[in-house]
Specification:
2 helices, about 110 residues, 6 strands, alpha/beta
Length: about 110
């Protein structure tokens, strides 16, 4: 599969990633402080998005990333013992390095 993700820190049953999300998942799985990265559900957008972007939310044991591509949206779970603020900053830094696209911070 073109966008299949695997590795020691990659978990879950759903191992397909949308365009762009695969690179982010690969980068995050290489960070020693991150214990597990799980590529989750993929949903079609109602319209087309001009830019790829991410939204980051706190979650139990880590963070939830909504990766919004041009046509699809994918949920990515990232688990770590680090505080969610550290994880959010690290995810935003990796996303910026990969794409230079928009990043949105959200908190509950």
């Amino acid at each position: 599969m073109k966008n299949h993700v695997n590795g020691a820190n990659i978990g879950g049953k759903h191992t397909t990633a949308i365009d762009g999300a695969k690179e982010l998942i690969d980068q995050l799985s290489r960070i020693p402080e991150i214990k597990r990265v799980v590529a989750s559900t993929i949903r079609a957008l109602k319209g087309r998005s001009a830019n790829r972007k991410i939204k980051v939310f706190p979650a139990n044991g880590g963070i939830r990333i909504e990766y919004i591509g041009n046509v699809y949206r994918q949920t990515i779970m990232v688990y770590s013992d680090q505080r969610h603020v550290w994880l959010e900053d690290r995810v935003n830094a990796e996303f910026s390095k990969l794409s230079g696209c928009q990043k949105n911070k959200h908190s509950k």
